[in-house]
Amino acid sequence: MVCKLHEVIKFVREYNLLNDLTDEDIEQNFNIFHHACSFDKNLAAYEVNSDNPNVFETVLDKTMEILDEAFEHEYTKDMIRKIATTFCDVFAAAGAPKRPVPFIIVLLSRV
User: Fold this and answer.
1) Block means of pLDDT (10 residues each) for the chain, length 111 residues?
2) DSSP class of residue 50?
């Protein structure tokens, strides 16, 4: 389970996923993700993968919820789906496990 800020920062640094951002930038994105740990407990046994529609759709829904609450944006769920599918490939190329909370933090950092 990777749901606390220091765990997320360690994760993205270990897999070189957000090297262009400072820890403070990552913290800002983390702080808009309410109840990351409780969300992660529901999905901790799973990795985000477009081949697993239940987990993938749950992550997309949570990402949209966070975006809707935190930002004025024009993203649709289909747009986020395309971006998330690409990030599955990015995580795979980095050899990073696709844990739900870091996946959403990385996704939020890039939209």
Assistant:
1) 82 94 90 72 72 84 88 92 92 91 87 86
2) T
DSSP conformation letters of 2-21: --SHHHHHHHHHHTTSSTTS
Which run of H or of E encompasses 86? helix 77-94
Q: How far is CA 99 from CA 38, 41, 44, 65, in A?
A: 14, 11, 7, 18
pTM value is 0.82
Q: Would you call 76 helix, strand, or coil by DSSP?
A: coil
- Phi-psi domain of 16 (left: phi exceeds 0; alpha: psi -120 through 50; beta: other): left
Give me the count of residues in the chain. 111
